Amino acid sequence: MNKFKLLWLCAVLGLMVGCAKGSNGLPYDAWRLGLGAPDYMEVWIETADAVDVRDRVFRRAMSGVAAINTPKSLKGHTRGWPSYPGWGAGKYVYGAAVPRLIYVRWQSLVEPQTYEAYIVIPEAIQQAMVKPEKAFCAADAKWITGYRKGVTVGLAPGGIAKVWISGPCVSPIEVTRVQGEVVKEGPDGGRSGGNYALPLKPETKAYIEKYGVPYGSW
């Protein structure tokens, strides 16, 4: 099939299937893995690994500080998850096909405790990640063909991992909620002598002293 016929086929199929751009089978360059946490509930990510549908492993696709807000006003609104979660702090996983498994090991600094979770991405979600969708972008008042190419993992105290897929101007889809397990070796696999990666911010300390940790709300 020549280039012009391929472009015509993509236009005709439109919202039905999309057209892959490269060997990873995606209709875009790469999908993004992002991680966040509820307000004040600080998290350090030891590693976030991805396994794609072709069983290729992408180790440390993301690590470091999760996206979080620590308002100085100490408002007690950290319970639950937002209706439209952001993309989180993250990176694009170049070269990967859609994910089938994500492994996260993280330090919940407010407890403190170290957790790990295995997150299975269902086939229906894999298909949703490559399905084009007409979407209206209010910021510039334009219609686009959007994709849910962002995988966001929310990490909360108690070892909770909540997952969504989303994309620019398209609504998020909730994927799953996973209960992680405590890592018995502690932070950094026991190599840090029980010391956690970062001290708590003063705003976080003040919030915890005033409101505590709302376990069970995530």
From TrEMBL:
Q: Which UniProt keywords apply?
A: Signal
Q: Does the keyword Signal apply?
A: yes
**Record PROSITE patterns:** PROKAR_LIPOPROTEIN
**Signal sequence bounds:** 1-22
A family per Pfam? DUF2931
- List the InterPro entries hit by this protein, alphabetically: DUF2931
Q: What is this protein called?
A: DUF2931 family protein
Give the source lineage, highest ranks first.
Answer: Bacteria, Pseudomonadati, Pseudomonadota, Gammaproteobacteria, Pseudomonadales
